[in-house]
Amino acid sequence: MMESEIHKPQKKNFFSRLFMQITERNPLLEIRETSEIVRYEFKRIILTLKFFIALSFVLLPAIIFLNSIASDYEALLLDFGVDAFRSFSAAGFVNIGQFLLQMIGIMLTLDSFGKVADDSMKRYFALPVRKTNLYIAHAITAFLGTILTGLLGIIVFNLILWIWTGVSLTFLLIVKSFFLISAGAFLAISITTLFVIIANFFGFASSIAIVPTLFIFYIIPFLVNFVTQFAFGLPEAYQWTFMYQLAVATDFMIEPFIGLQLSLEQVANRNAWLIIGIISGITQILSLIIFAESEK
Amino acid sequence: MDPIIRVENVSKIFGRYISRARVTSLRDINFTIKKGERICLFGPNGAGKSTLMKSIMGLLKPTKGQIYIKDYNVRWNPLKVKQSIGYLPSELNFYLNTPCKESLIHFGILRGLSRREALQETDRLLELIGLAKWWDLPPKLMSSGMRQRFSLSLAIIGDPEIILFDEPVAFIDVQGKLKVYQLVQDYVKNKAKTVIMSTHNIQDALVMSDRLILMDRGRIIVDGPITEVITKRCKSMEIILAQDAPSEKEIVKVIGEEDFELSGRKILVRSENALQISTSIVNRLQENKILVFSFRPFVEQRRTKTETEESS
């Protein structure tokens, strides 16, 4: 049989293509490809100044925090932040750290999937690299950058805290703080990734993709909180916002408690983690499908 | 010899789903390329050269038709196809801050070489393109010619059988061009590679290819051996300007001393070197931001009623 007859055009649907993709190559080759892209991209991120700017953003709250203790500085933060700051607990850092690490996560996501990155990503499209691996590698890079920044931030924060006040976080608290900071950042990364990929798909500037994330995390909670509490006297509505769910999850894990823990049921805590997990997972899968199926 | 590339009835329409304004970039393109051929896709900006290249590369999905590389359908076997193709895009395709060697090794590994092979290949290619001393420096410190040579090395690492050059010498000076020409010719001839390049400069086409495909508004107008196309089939060339073209006086001022006939928006060049002259006219017009609607060999009574309506 001639070779041309072997490779006759076949109409393949999504599932047969998916099956072909899974079975076409050795899984080890996929891992090698993904890890090579992660290695190169991560090195590039570290080489660029962005990473260090990001790190300084984590250092900043540590300094503000210590200032607030020293001079009784009234920092205006999200609901739980003010009390937490004043109560000289690590929870304040977690709230602030969560916010800043979310920002860093968003920045790294734009660096990995944004318009400029989308243009530069074209280099990979001309290579025999699977789009799925490309997506996974870039997502890992964003997560890895966030994790590393978070870890460094917490360690440096603790160092400053110890030098200044003689008080240090316990190892367990450091691990918990890191975990909670990362949870919010991962959620922000997943949601931003989806919006960035949708923006790229329709040819919009990817920078506008951070607007929905900002709305979901900050503007909507603020508005809901403000309107329900002051205009309608209904304080419960804000419980449906992402930031509240993150705060619940945070409060459930962190020590010392910031008070919310006492009024919450186990179910609420479980739901908060479920919301974070399910939404992160679904947005990642959706982003991957759009990325892999879109034409570049 | 069996063709290595087959392009069958390929059309590409942009903006089908989202935008109301549809742009037909390719219209029923058909051709085949044999192993070792050096093809030049030639035409003005907007002729569809880059779209065709990207479709061959699998970066764009044709709206209609099929493309086969070594009998593999580009759409359904993208990895196998990309394994055989090295692509040099018109825009920069590397990070400016990452050292050359690092990027080359990375590309080599992704092309399936082992780390050791990629290292050896990197050293050899850096030597070949004359950038061995620059191995640890980032491309942002290089001149545009050096960057283009570096781009070339990224396209040929892993020794692909087919190489696509999308306007490889568009933005570099004459000295840089000569170096790139020399490199490409040495590499391609020594290894009998199949090359497709796109350009709107006839000099580049003459140096780097032996078959010319003249494109205009998404169609293939002429396809044949380059010398035959230039000497026999393109003795008269017609350039039609877009509707918002400036006055004849201004057009004459832009074109200058070239030998041509001008009536309204239509420029006609009749000469032994018609293709060369008309290309130079088109380039000058485009440099002055005068849009060219059509650029093609002129044949009396050739234009159909639909085309006439379309152009008006």
Walk me through what this model shows.
The complex is a heterodimer of chains A (296) and B (312). Chain A is mainly α. Chain A has helices spanning 3-6, 14-24, 27-47, 50-71, 79-86, 90-113, 115-125, 131-165, 171-201, 210-231, 242-253, 266-293. The longest helix of chain A has 35 residues, at 131-165. The model of chain A is unreliable at 1-6, 70-82 and 84-90 (pLDDT under 50). Helices cover 37% and strands 27% of the residues of chain B. Chain B is globular and about 65 Å long. The model of chain B is unreliable at 301-312 (pLDDT under 50). Chain A binds chain B through residues 3-4, 6-7, 9-10, 12, 17, 24-25, 32-33, 36-37, 40, 43-44, 47-48, 119-120, 122-130, 202-203, 295-296, and chain B through 2, 18, 57-61, 66, 68, 70-73, 76-80, 82-83, 85, 87, 89, 91, 93-95, 97-98, 102, 106-107, 109-112, 154.
Q: Which class of secondary structure composition applies to the elements of chain A? A: mainly alpha
How large is the count of helical segments of chain B? 11
N-to-C SSE string of chain B, H for helix and E for strand: EEEHEEHEHHHEHEHEEHEHEEHEH
Number of helices of chain A: 12
Question: What proportion of the residues of chain A is helical, as a percent range?
Answer: over 70%
- Give a short account of the largest sheet of chain B: 6 strands, mixed
Main sheet properties of chain A: none
Counting DSSP E segments of at least 2 residues, the number of strands of chain A comes to 0
Envelope shape of chain A: globular
Q: Most extensive chain contact?
A: A-B, 34 and 37 residues
Quaternary organization: heterodimer
Order of helices and strands of chain A: HHHHHHHHHHHH
